[in-house]
Amino acid sequence: MEAAKGDHCVTAETALAVEVKRLLAGGQREEAAERFGAIVEQQHRRAARIAYFHLRDPAGE
Length: 61
What we know:
Blueprint: H1 5-25, H2 29-55
Helix pairs in contact: 1-2
């Protein structure tokens, strides 16, 4: 079964989260912070898409 686009994002974010934990455990805080920033950026884009979808012009419906 092929993963849906949303599933791919979750998988990528999960992989980044695992990497962040590994980096933190290894004392590499700066690198972990950079990877965490990537997770935040992805979540921000996802939240913006959802907001725009729900807040679109209701007169156009």
